[in-house]
Amino acid sequence: MSESLEALRAQLDAINEDILHALNRRARIVEEIGRLKLKQGINRFDPVRERAMLDHLVSINEGPFDDQTIRSLFKQIFAASLQLQKKQHEQALLVSRARKPENTVVYVGDVAVGGEHPVIIAGPCSVESEAQTAQVAEVVAGLGLKFLRGGAFKPRTSPYDFQGLGLEGLKILREVANRYDLRVVSEIMTPGDLEVAADYVDVIQIGARNMQNFNLLKAVGALDKPVLLKRGMAATIEEFKFAAEYILSHGNPNVILTERGIRTYEKATRNTLDISAVPILKQETHLPVLVDVTHAAGRRDILLPLAKAALAAGADGVMIEVHPDPNTALSDAQQQIDLDQFRMFYQELTKNVPVFI
Ligand code: PEP
Ligand code: MN
Predict the structure, then answer these.
(1) Where are the alpha helices (DSSP H) in 181-213?
(2) According to a count of CB atoms within 10 Å of the terminal CB, is the N or C end of the chain lower?
(3) Which residue ranges does the chain devote to CATH 3.20.20.70?
(4) Chain region(s) in the chain for CATH 1.20.59.10
(5) Phi, psi of 313, rounded to the nearest 5 degrees
(6) Tens of pLDDT, residues 326-349
(7) How many helices (H) and strands (E) does the chain have?
């Protein structure tokens, strides 16, 4: 009796092994199909084909498993195969670290983002005047930093709020940045403004509200200029990666990802800084990752700890809004810091990280 039980168990073990090898043989064919579909741009999931395979299996089913059980067992196998193809597709993305293991360093002229030293991109929310911009630039350059930010085309929630100085703002930024040997980061909201912006801006910023403006993404993908892409306020990390993929797939590899907080139910901050996005994006992509602490927090009193957290989590730098007189600012008055506060912010950060650019 016990001998025949042993023998039956041995048979089961052998069948289990057969099933295992058959499943993996099947998986390799699924991967091969996945590669073909990827090349031809065909959708991974084919419900008609799945239905046909199930119907066929049920039609030849001799039991003792009933048809319903056969269907649900094979559906599990199909789902696992689809998962395999999904993983394969993700690894094939141009942004993916599986595709390009080494870090991408984005050079803005001779200044590296994602290189040896973290960066601080500082400047006013909006360019308001030459004097206001120059005051900030003087401090930024005085600290040895290299990037000046400032909005000229402002994506404002209300159409009645200050919309930015437009081209005039870009001219101010360029002129001031040249005076202090700084690189200009500024948001462009529409493909039509890209050509003229190219003369004034060193890094094109795509704002959170435009992260899925696919025409804009394609247009900056065709440029020979670095792009700072903000995460949309309601975008998943996967959607963020796909937005970057648009830019890379249109020919521009120089993308800097920027986490800037996502909208949650929490009201203590304007957005919720998704700090986990930093190590996840660093793991899953090869692109530099920054954190915009100002728009994440929406308040100036917690910017320093957020910046420390960002760097500790592996960010390649931070963005912060600085204004000579934040209370009179034409946009984001409650979240910008003044020049002294910025010097202190810099000093405190350099206690942990000695060199910023
Ligand atoms: C900005 O940086 O000026 C800005 C508007 O940020 P966001 O797009 O992240 O809201
Ligand atoms: Mn702002």
Answers:
(1) 194-197
(2) N
(3) 106-349
(4) 2-92
(5) -80, -5
(6) 999 999 999 999 999 999 999 999
(7) 12, 10
Looking up tokens 């799945």, which residue turns up? 50
pLDDT at residue number 40: 84
CB 187 less than 6 A from any atom of ligand 1: yes
CA 294 to ligand 1 center in whole angstroms: 9
Average pLDDT score, the chain: 95
Q: Which fold has domain 2-92?
A: Chorismate Mutase Domain, subunit A (1.20.59)
Residues 120-127 have a mean pLDDT of: 98
Residue 111 has a pLDDT of 97
Q: Which residues surround ligand 2, an ion (CB under 5 A)?
A: 125, 332
pLDDT for res 1:
57
**Tell me, what's the pLDDT at 322?**
98
Measured CA to CA, the distance from residue 184 to residue 147 in angstroms comes to 6
CA distances from 8 to 62, 64, 149 (A): 21, 17, 73
Fold of the domain spanning 106-349 = TIM Barrel (3.20.20)
Looking at residue 232, its pLDDT comes to 98
Q: How confident is the model at residue 202 (pLDDT cuts 50, 70, 90)?
A: very high
CA of 123 to the centre of ligand 1 (A): 12
Does the Cβ of 280 fall within 6 Å of ligand 1? no
Q: Whose CA is nearest to atom 6 of ligand 1?
A: 207
